[in-house]
Amino acid sequence: MSDAGPEETPAGNTQTGSNRTYRGLPGAFPYAFRRSGSRLFRSYVLVGGLAALALSAAFVLALIYLVGGTFGARAGVFTFSRSFYVVVALFVIAPVVAPVLLVARRHRTGRDDTGYDRALAASGYLFLLSIYLMLVVSAPAEFRDPAAQYGALEPAIRALYDLPPLSGLAAPVSAAVVIYLVHRWQR
Q1: CA–CA distance, 160 with 135 (Å, rounded to integer)
Q2: CB burial class (10 A; 0-12, 13-18, 19+) of residue 55?
Q3: Chain mean pLDDT for the chain
Q4: Are 165 and 138 in contact (CB under 8 A)?
Q5: 125: Cβ contacts below 8 Å, ≥ 6 apart
Q6: Is 22 helix (H, G, I), strand (E, B) or coil?
Q7: Which of 13, 65, 168, 179 could pair with 123 as two cysteines, CB 3.0-4.6 Å apart?
Q8: pLDDT 10s digits, 25-40
Q9: What is the pLDDT of residues 115-136, one digit of tens each?
Q10: DSSP, res 140
Q11: What are the extents of the domains in the chain?
Q12: d(CA 132, CA 139)
């Protein structure tokens, strides 16, 4: 056992070895993983972190492709579409990382609650499922698999294919609202 007292950090916070807080978004993931007692939440930290990285990479690559395709074009609509990509990326990635940030913040303030962790993990998984549903609904016809290959899910897939592409936004928006409501309800 060490006689050393709490460490002084550059920010002036005192910390003990096992109670270190995180610094920013990247540090929130390992901090929340270590502090949570919920296996469901720990799995979400891993899955949600990988999903956030994959989504970020996809948006960066799409933006590079868009900029490359419009290089030399005049400003106006092209500048707006580039900015729109960034806004859409924020609206998609923020709800993926929100459960991790909320749980990390709650643990940092000393209010550990496994039920809260579990509920936010479930809402985070719901958001990831809603992104998949949005992609199924909004996929162009040439990229869709035949619904018959899904067996018992064929009627559900056909129903999703029959929806207007813009209605695919309803699932992620609803799931993001669910994350917020779960956070408020579990406070």
Answers
A1: 10
A2: middle
A3: 84
A4: yes
A5: 44, 47
A6: coil
A7: 179
A8: 888 999 999 999 999 9
A9: 999 999 999 999 999 999 999 9
A10: -
A11: 26-186
A12: 10
